[in-house]
Amino acid sequence: MSMKWRNLTSQNSILMALLHPLRYQSTPSPSSYAAIFKFLTGLNLLKLGQQIHSHLIIRGLNPNSFLGAKMVAMYASSGDIDSAIVLFDSIRQNASILLYNSIIRACSLYGLSEKSVGIYLEMNSAGVPGDYFTFPFVLKSCASLCNLGFGKSVHGKCLRSGLEFDFYVATSLIDFYVKCGELHDAHKLFDQMPVRDVASWNALISGHMKNGMVHLAEDLFSRIPNNNKNIVSWTTMISGYTQNSLPDQALQLFDEMTTDLSNIKPNWVTIMSILPACSQSSSLDQGKKIHNYATSIGLDSNPSVQTALAAMYAKCGSLLDAQICFQKIPQNRKNLVSWNTMISALAAHGYGIESVSTFNDMVRAGVQPDAITFTGLLSACSHSGLVDIGLNYFNSMKIAYNIEPRHEHYACIVDLLGRAGRLKEAYELTLKMPMTPGASIWGALLSGSKNYRNLEIAEISAKHLFVLEPENSGSYVILSNMYAEAGMWVEVNNLRDLVKARGVEKNPGCSW
């Protein structure tokens, strides 16, 4: 018998034993129910859990704080956070620390950070002290909210409870300070820890990488004893290198990780972290090598890995490989990121019609688009001259999808109209925008004006760019050339004097 079936048989045997008192006792005790809900937690058997809950109600039993904690944990682990909250609300008057911990944990894991913090405040008001199980999840919620002040007050509670250097609490404090950008406080706490868990090292490495302090992160990584480095340590470093545009270092560390001498092997998160390094260095061969490695260890079936592979291939110039990876993802497992990746890939390669078609497939599949979707879609319309289609999608964003157009969406439409020679419309849209136009919008307008020799709008656009990007020589060159074409030599000389006065240097031509 396989391990899978042995485990299933064992679970069924345990469940039957736990259900036995409910069948043959006229009034089962709350403890009988508590054992069942505890067993069901994490098994994703929501329907069975609801049936046991109904049985409890029919027998006229009301869950106490102990039983309620087990029921909240079962509902939350089975994907029904709403029922967990309703249940907590019905018995919260005399809640114990166990019940409070159960609901705080559930809300924190579901991203309901404000509710998690609110229940913790209620817990404090009720005089129920927090413990080593309470504080990590409250701190996780504080980090999510970037609420530094409240997080520090929780730190004070940890101190008064004598839990500051508990493994889990200390690591949660370091993670909280890192995510709130307080690296000094995180380092101070780390240095004071008598015993350091690898999770605390990883949290600090991640913080330094996110703040561009690569050398400090490298120093920390080198100081972790080799037998203590785990998959998170390696992946954090690789991801940090790619985030800081250091693809060579990322690829070198990945190669080191995949040697026969390494006792840690990449997982799907590692593969997703290293693929952007191939994109940054335009290393298609390296990307294919990593793809083959992922296939050899069975990770290529992961939809997130296939999506990352599609993005890598598209950015390295192989649209066909990107499409193959996208098509390998089962239709019911293509999420928003997968669709956005393919829409943007087609747009970048100039396949506007195909990008629009992919968007329509996404909507038919029941996946709701977001702002990123429309950036890719409108860019595709712009690059392929699909003016009316692009305008229709832009106008439908708010009405049909409840998405407020952002600066980048306006930039796409200005570029769309500018490329089509509809410069007056593009300029009028720029004036009507609900936000201040940035360099991307004035740049699109200047480019369109150059192509259609509209000196009036070119002057307006360039003068805005001289303020927004005073060191970008391209704007000066375009306007100077347009003045020269029109025989406006006084303006050409004035512009050259301005360039010299500002010390602007012409960017040299470059190519991949």
From TrEMBL:
<feature type="repeat" description="PPR">
    <location>
        <begin position="166"/>
        <end position="200"/>
    </location>
</feature>
<dbReference type="Pfam" id="PF20431">
    <property type="entry name" value="E_motif"/>
</dbReference>
<dbReference type="InterPro" id="IPR046848">
    <property type="entry name" value="E_motif"/>
</dbReference>
<dbReference type="GO" id="GO:0009451">
    <property type="term" value="P:RNA modification"/>
</dbReference>
<feature type="repeat" description="PPR">
    <location>
        <begin position="335"/>
        <end position="369"/>
    </location>
</feature>
<dbReference type="Pfam" id="PF01535">
    <property type="entry name" value="PPR"/>
</dbReference>
<dbReference type="GO" id="GO:0003723">
    <property type="term" value="F:RNA binding"/>
</dbReference>
<dbReference type="InterPro" id="IPR002885">
    <property type="entry name" value="PPR_rpt"/>
</dbReference>
<dbReference type="Pfam" id="PF13041">
    <property type="entry name" value="PPR_2"/>
</dbReference>
<keyword id="KW-0677">Repeat</keyword>
<dbReference type="InterPro" id="IPR046960">
    <property type="entry name" value="PPR_At4g14850-like_plant"/>
</dbReference>
<protein>
    <recommendedName>
        <fullName>Pentatricopeptide repeat-containing protein</fullName>
    </recommendedName>
</protein>
<dbReference type="InterPro" id="IPR011990">
    <property type="entry name" value="TPR-like_helical_dom_sf"/>
</dbReference>
<feature type="repeat" description="PPR">
    <location>
        <begin position="230"/>
        <end position="260"/>
    </location>
</feature>
